[in-house]
């Protein structure tokens, strides 16, 4: 067993009758990563996720989680160590938000006051005011709110690993983007190992530290979002990335501060953009304003540099 | 206290009427006399109404408890992964059984168990089983697959999934089945008098045999009031359950 891998799959296969859903998969997921599985329907990405918490057993191969072979672990104890969020939220309709979030701590036998404190903390973390939401039932929540509660429930017992099966798939684009940002913000505080399944390439590129592209139960490419965009291994990955939009997708991963030029003696351009914005946003602003030069500022509006349109065409400066 | 009485005022009203009928039937002799002016007696006296009511309740309670226990257990067993092979068989029996008239079940149990309370309880239990079983199946099968997957996925044991999620979510539907079952059983228990059980059906049967309409009416009124009383109690319980689950 190697040092840092939080999750390791070794030659894992799963058959359903004659169909091979997962075919000799080997993969390492490091601690603190957001590993996103992407592929078309039926490519085996959800099956792989369910193999990790033993909702489905492997036909062959081994899965190691945090230095332990899952085959040797009791499945319900293993699952209580892994947060689990799914597309349809799976919230218990007969329980209030409070009880839904507190379910895993209760299974683990936490005392009532500790559960209550944890529920408060999580509702705050997910921007749901405690007093408004704690006594609501799932049927009284909007889709986005229900999914936030689903994520809170997954985080409740502070697991090291979070499994998320298309958690934002059923939400409208605006809510989905808000929750993606929320997840990234939360992850910057909690540093979990997250395994995330999606069929939305933009979601994958936005969230992932590494992307696993799957097809017919096999891994086609396992790479960082940048490498996936720059060096897709075959036409399947190219198609997945959407041929015509690749430039824009890559631009949305690149940050303005990595491309800006030092401030010159000349006056500052009138149009400004924040240093943390993506190149895609910068390009969009240029196209919209018909401008070829932007001023780059930090969050406090202090000028840091300039961004001429030609700088977008350079390869990454740093 | 007042709020409790207010909540239960429906069942309490029917209970008061039932007790009035049981203990003060004699006061209405003049009314029943109009019905059968020629009869020697117009109020049924062979057994006291209170005794008949108690025995009726006993027969119903035993039969209904057995029906509920067996019906819910069978429903649970055939929806587990290891019992699922029996699901088609059991759900077919549950639907076909309901088309069988209760008198026929009663008649069939006599050769097996003789006369008296025992065959009546057996027949009532069989007949009352079906609505409980059918609703248990419907209730358990109505629990969303995603809810079950989430319950397993967060680490509940199979028993915890069953008790905390499946039965809890199915309970309104199961309770509706129990309500139907108990109400049917109360009405059907009266027919038990034909095979020697002592129930509120006794005045009805005696009245039919002797051509005494007053007897028939007294038995019928008591059975009707008992059924309405119990049914309205269940209605309140269901209402309370619905409120608790935010429905």
From TrEMBL, chain A:
Chain coiled-coil ranges: none
SMART domains registered for this protein in UniProt: AAA
One Gene Ontology molecular-function label: ATP hydrolysis activity
Biological processes per GO annotation: quaternary ammonium group transport
Keyword annotations from UniProtKB, A to Z: ATP-binding, Nucleotide-binding, Transport
The keyword ATP-binding appears for this protein: yes
Pfam (any one): ABC_tran
InterPro entries xref list: AAA+_ATPase, ABC_transporter-like_ATP-bd, ABC_transporter-like_CS, P-loop_NTPase
ABC transporter domain segment(s): 7-241
Gene3D superfamilies attached to this UniProt entry: P-loop containing nucleotide triphosphate hydrolases
Name assigned to this protein: Osmoprotectant transport system ATP-binding protein
SUPFAM superfamilies: P-loop containing nucleoside triphosphate hydrolases
Family: Belongs to the ABC transporter superfamily.
Domain of life: Bacteria
Automatic annotation (TrEMBL), chain B:
Locations listed in the record: Cell membrane
GO biological process: one example: transmembrane transport
Entry's Gene Ontology cellular component terms: plasma membrane
Bilayer disposition of the protein: Multi-pass membrane protein
Main location, first listed in the record: membrane
UniProt keyword list: Membrane, Transmembrane, Transmembrane helix, Transport
Ranges annotated as spanning the membrane: 12-32, 53-83, 103-130, 173-195, 215-234
Pfam family, one: BPD_transp_1
Superkingdom in the source lineage: Bacteria
Protein family: Belongs to the binding-protein-dependent transport system permease family.
Official protein name in the record: Osmoprotectant transport system permease protein
Species, as recorded: Pseudomonas segetis
Species classification: Bacteria, Pseudomonadati, Pseudomonadota, Gammaproteobacteria, Pseudomonadales
